[in-house]
Structure formats: structure tokens, C-alpha cells
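Researcher: Re-running this chain for the archive, since the previous output was lost when a drive failed. Same request as before.
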Amino acid sequence: MRRILATHHHADHVGGISRLVEAYDVPVYGPAAEQIPARTVALRDGDQVELSPLHASFSVLEVPGHTAGHIAYVGAGMAFVGDTLFMSGCGRLFEGTAAQMLNSLSRLASLPGDTLIYCAHEYTLDNLKFARAVEPENGDILQRTEASNDLRRRHQPTVPAPLSLELKTNPFLRTAQPTVAAAAAAHAGHHLGNQAEIFAAVRGWKDQF
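Model: Regenerated C-alpha cells:
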């Protein structure tokens, strides 16, 4: 059976759902805390979604920050994360706080390292430019930039990527690293007392990058 799995309410993610439902009469899964067009199954943290044709089960994680009710689907070695986590980046804080997003990213960062991260946009090259500004001496970022440039030259996607690579190259998952903390404080022009403040500074820096 076909299913539509929505992560959050933004129009670029759900704008075509109503027409798809008219054409195919498929059930629509989405976060209970948000208005999703034609939603038939409202999901909350810990719920399970069974995809029997794929013989796969996905757990629902509430990951607010980009939007108030954003969810991710995790299972079968994959995580469909919408706009919470990008390749070497994360979503803007449209409805949530820095502390919320930091907690959401921490939940995703705790998944097994070989989990394949499927985000919703091909922003990798732009995100890597920012990652290099934060950690210019990080060799993993330089290697990933070369590999991602090669993929895009061949018209190949950079998505998905394993979580283990994100942990090495994504500044928003590396706020506990001294290099990221120092760069964030230097950019902010003052001491940052905890990871939430570091994350907020890095997110604000990226917003203006």
C-alpha cells in the first residue's frame, strides 16, 4: 500500500498532498501537532509506522525546532529527517528555540553511526562552505567538500549520508567540540556559557552567512 509520510507543515513539503490523495487515495501520516493537508493518521513521539511492502517499521521522533511539531521517521537503518538535519547543516529556527533544536539534533545524533540520513533539500555544498568557515582546519570537512563537489559535477545527489559523517563535518552536531565553541565565541564577540548558547550563536552566524 502506498503511504505519504509528512514531517512538518511547510508548503514545500505538503503542498501537493491533496492532489496526490485525489489521484491515488492514499493514507497520509503526519505530526499530530501540526496541520497537514488530508492527514489521516496523526503521529506522536514513539508511534510506529509499518511499511509492510518494504518489510520495515519506522519509529516516530518528535524533533521540534524548525517547526513546533516537526517529526522524523527512523527505522531500517534510515532516518527521514525533513528539515531538522541537513547534510552538514540544520534547519532554521522558524518556530522553535535554539535549546529545542539542540535537543532534537542530539536525539538524532544518538542514532547508530551507520544510519543513513535522508534530508529534504540538496543544500550540502552551501552548508559545507559554512562548515569550513567554522572549522577551517577540519580535514573531514575538506574531504567531504571534494567528494560532494564531485557528486554534483556528475549530477548525483549528496543525500543520503551516514550519521557518522555528519558527526565529523556538521557544526550543528559539534557544539561540544572546542574548535566549534571557540569559533562561535569569536564570531559572537563574547564568552558562550553552554551548548545552547554555542548552538544559537552558530545558527545565527549561518543565518547571516
